[in-house]
Amino acid sequence: MMTNDAIKQALAEGGLVETRDYVLDVRYAAGNYDRFPQLAGELAQAGASVLLTNTIAGVRAAQRLSPPVRIVMISINDPVGNGLVASLARPGGNTTGMSTLSEDLTVKLLDLVRELLPGAKSVAALFNPSNPSNPILLEKTRKAANAVAMTIIPVELKSSAMLGDAFSAISAGHPDVLLLVPDLGTTVDLGDRIAALALAQKLPSIAIVPEYAKFGGLFGYGVSSDYLFAKSAYFVKRIFEGASPAELPVEQPTQLELAVNLKVARALGLTVPPALLARADKVIED
Fold it and tell me: Hey, which residues does 72 pair with through a beta bridge?
């Protein structure tokens, strides 16, 4: 979730002063994708000069505004493949920001699972079918899993109201591990609840969000929120200085973090291999 304090801190570190350089107005769709057009319209009517968004549906709703408003993507899965920008180098239109490495990172999670749980054969993959990138990521993960004799058990999670049903389906599948397919609502907004439910089932759970280990997951590997907010602040500042989003290349992350929760590992009766622990950027012990 894009918290007020986190984005304000990133903007301040980028040299922008609240009230002097900007006023932050935040809207949340709370997982309801149908609300994005309304929320984008409200912000445009309020006079927003730049819209920060971190979902594909949010970007699309912002791009439909007339007159157009400049858009900074905080972290978007495959913005080229999803038709949000023309290319990473020359995005065109009024949109720029950060792309993710979700396809590579989701597959990388399987490598980490095999290192930590060499006997794991089945992986429950919790995904949001409303997120257009999730079915694609799920299929790529399935192919990668098949190549190493692992089975993916897909489990849908469209909203928080379906969390109980999703975990009933997960329990019925008897997986060795739970993987959260990259989606803001799943990995961040519901991350702590999902981690707690997985732990209650004695099920190791993982995600490409390093903060997921802090939420109570076994480990998270990917790009930190602090890094993404800092990059977003950079784009906002460049736009305020006169740069056109069309001419600001969309960037991919260059810094990845591995976070391991040893407390959760102990609760699951797992021993984290020393080699994996040595590579961890953050180790949570209590």
Answer: 52, 96
